[in-house]
């Protein structure tokens, strides 16, 4: 039981560390960027003064970006990747599409989840169809 | 039994470290003890060289060991510290206050890891010394210096053309990014006094670099005094629309038959 708890804690730490990769990209730090843009004190003295409050806020914002905001924002990209990979016709015959349809249906949740996991952990460019 | 196994493991680790540090040792700058040993203690004369081999060979091995495990690692401590310092550079507190705060912990954790990794990597492998990151002001100063050097070199080239000495133009000057009055004077002088070959080079360089005199008068080469220059410029002219009608007419009735024929072919008159 103890070993299981240690292992799951280590796995959670590793996942958190890896999501740090994703938010190394500025576009993936939406909450931190919003705080930087709208809540940064203008003078150096004020910045020093609010540090005891701002430090935990920034950590919560970073973890929120890693665990909540960035994964949620990656859902549409992951879905677009899944549609591209499994549901976009590349000139196959109608028969081939019909045969592959059940396989695509089975693979969809796996591809979507894997893609979403990868996008949540690593800095991956947006899907071309959704890129501005 | 277990102490013997530990001894074997230690020897294997030391051997691996020695082999890897051979990479660092391949650079002469990384083996000061060996260099000093070879320079001062190994005799030059053949007889003495051979006679002292039983002493110098073990001494040489000792020098390798000292270089690999003591001197070179000591040399790279500063570089490793520089790499670790880089973790804390480029912080933008006034623009990214919360982001910088959030990265304090990873930076604090990462600093000793970077230091140790860099120290081991630099001790074992031949890695270039650490360089302090350039400040924007320093970067701008270097850019200005480079631009001034290029201007000076271009000025010299224009003077060499004007004086009938055809020196090669550095490829870096092709796209001269800052024109000056001095360059304009040099350009005009070269155009006036350079020989035909020099003028042709001048027109080509001005076109390739998009120099201001060319932008002001792109057809200058088609009005050159030498018919061969006019012919060669016309031959590589990209599109006729950019040549004024009166110049097209002049070229079609050029005194040189070759220019005339080429102009009539590439710039036919509109009837």
Write up this protein.
The complex is a heterodimer of chains A (132) and B (271). Chain A contains five helices and no strands. Chain A has helices at residues 2-22, 30-39, 44-73, 75-87, 94-121. In chain A, helix 1 packs across helix 3 (44-73), helix 2 runs antiparallel to helix 3 (44-73) and helix 4 (75-87) runs antiparallel to helix 5 (94-121). The radius of gyration of chain A is 20 Å and the shape is elongated. The mean pLDDT of chain A is 87. Chain B is mostly helical. In chain B, helix 9 runs parallel beside helix 11 and helix 11 packs parallel to helix 13. The longest helix of chain B is centred in the first third of the chain and has 34 residues, at 53-86. The relative contact order of chain B is 0.06.
Write the layout of secondary structure elements.
The complex is a heterodimer of chains A (132) and B (271).
Chain A: H1 2-22, H2 30-39, H3 44-73, H4 75-87, H5 94-121
Helix pairs in contact in A: 1-3, 2-3, 3-5, 4-5
Chain B: H1 2-25, H2 32-40, H3 46-51, H4 53-86, H5 97-102, H6 104-124, H7 136-162, H8 181-193, H9 196-209, H10 212-216, H11 227-235, H12 245-252, H13 257-266
Structural class of chain B: mainly alpha
Order of helices and strands of chain B: HHHHHHHHHHHHH
The H-and-E topology of chain A, N to C, reads as: HHHHH
| Quaternary structure annotation | heterodimer
Gyration radius of chain A (Cα, Å) is 20 Å
- Mean pLDDT of chain B equals 86
Helix content of chain A: over 70%
From the N-terminal CA to the C-terminal CA of chain A, the straight-line distance is 49 Å
Main beta sheet of chain A, described?
none
Global shape of chain A: elongated
Query: Could you give a short account of the major beta sheet of chain B?
Result: none
Classify the secondary structure makeup of chain A into a structural class: mainly alpha
Q: Total helix count of chain B? A: 13
**Radius of gyration of chain B, whole Å:** 33 Å
Bin the strand percentage of chain B. Answer: under 5%
């Amino acid at each position: 039981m103890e070993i299981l708890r240690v292992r799951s804690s280590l796995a959670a730490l590793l996942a958190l560390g890896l999501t740090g990769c994703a938010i190394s990209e500025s576009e993936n730090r939406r909450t931190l960027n919003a705080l930087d843009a709208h809540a940064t004190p203008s003078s150096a003295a004020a910045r020093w003064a609010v540090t005891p409050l701002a430090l935990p806020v920034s950590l919560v914002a970073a973890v929120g970006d890693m665990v909540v905001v960035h994964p949620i924002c990656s859902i549409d990209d992951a879905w677009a990747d899944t549609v591209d990979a499994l549901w976009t016709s590349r000139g196959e015959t109608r028969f081939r599409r019909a045969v592959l349809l059940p396989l695509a249906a089975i693979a969809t949740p796996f591809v979507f989840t894997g893609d979403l996991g990868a996008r949540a952990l690593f800095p991956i460019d947006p899907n071309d169809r959704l890129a501005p | 039994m277990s102490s013997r196994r530990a001894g074997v493991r230690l020897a294997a680790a030391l051997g691996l470290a020695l082999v890897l540090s051979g990479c660092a040792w391949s650079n002469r700058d990384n083996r000061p003890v060996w260099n000093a040993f070879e320079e001062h203690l190994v005799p030059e004369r053949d007889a003495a060289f051979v006679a002292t081999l039983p002493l110098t060979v073990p001494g040489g091995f000792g020098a390798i060991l000292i270089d690999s495990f003591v001197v070179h690692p000591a040399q790279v401590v500063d570089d490793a510290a520089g790499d670790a310092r880089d973790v804390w550079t480029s912080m933008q507190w006034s623009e990214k206050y919360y982001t910088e705060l959030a990265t304090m912990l990873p930076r604090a954790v990462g600093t000793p890891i970077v230091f140790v990794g860099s120290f081991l990597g630099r001790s074992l492998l031949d890695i270039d010394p650490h360089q302090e990151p350039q400040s924007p002001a320093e970067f701008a100063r270097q850019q200005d210096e480079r631009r001034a050097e290029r201007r000076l070199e271009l000025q010299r080239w224009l003077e060499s053309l004007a004086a009938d000495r055809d020196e090669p133009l550095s490829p870096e000057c092709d796209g001269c990014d800052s024109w000056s009055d001095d360059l304009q004077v040099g350009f005009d002088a070269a155009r006036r006094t350079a020989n035909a070959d020099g003028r042709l080079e001048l027109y080509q360089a001005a076109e390739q670099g998009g120099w201001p005199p060319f932008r002001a008068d792109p057809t200058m080469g088609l009005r050159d005094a030498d018919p061969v220059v006019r012919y060669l410029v016309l031959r590589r002219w990209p599109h006729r629309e950019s040549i004024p009608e009166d110049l097209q007419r002049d070229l079609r009735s050029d005194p040189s038959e070759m220019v005339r024929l080429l102009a009539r072919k590439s710039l036919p008159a509109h009837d």
